[in-house]
Give the backbone structure.
Amino acid sequence: MPDEQTAQEIQYPYYEVTVTETTWHYKAIHYLEGVLEHRYSERTDVFVGANNFVYLEEGNTEDKQSPDVYLCFGASNRDRRSYRPWDEGGVFPQVVFEVSSRSSRFHDLGDKKALYEAMGVEEYYVFDPLREYIPQGLRAFRRKDAAFQELVLPRDASSEIRVFSPRIQLDLAVDGPLLRFFEPDQRDPLPNYKEARLREEQAKMREEQAKLREEQAKLREEQAKLREEQALLELEAARAELAELRRQLGQS
């Protein structure tokens, strides 16, 4: 670990020119990050990161990676330029997602994977939304001792793949160009933040519509009661008029 003076002088880069990505890759990353952000939005001790540098050790500006999406349990939930574990009590990412392609496959399964192993990552998921080199779309790794062990998944692209994440306590399943989250006993995928907000707004709208229908039914009931009362008043008036006519006839 560098001394205090050296540590103050070290600049940890948080930006560099990166390669572009397809809309499929962007949407896959956006979904993963969005669901996790929504799931842990009320937690102050869980950080969800995406596309920013994670450093291996203090004073070392070279050993770093930029995971597409990662999750840190035990780290403060706050904005940051880069993730430096020594600022978070030594907490490294426990779960990492890479949305991969043919051009990045050697990077995702080579030096990135090796550095994630060195960081102590517990779960590593490599998702290929276009099936450019992973026929089933997903490769999943679990930490065993000091290295990753790959889970055996069906290699048939038509087979349903559903992998449970021990850390997140959710199932992961390939759904077309997305890697979606599911509650273990549910068939519908979890929404990301935008989808959740839309569902909440739709539910609120349905609630307001139900309330409006209830008020309309109540209004119709009150109108029917008013018509009934008006009819009774008209009947009483007619009876009074008839009684007056009879009285007048009786006097003539």
In short: The radius of gyration is 32 Å. The longest strand covers residues 138-144. The domain at 4-190 is CATH 3.90.1570.10 (tt1808, chain A). The helical segments are 4-9, 23-39, 105-108, 111-119, 193-251.
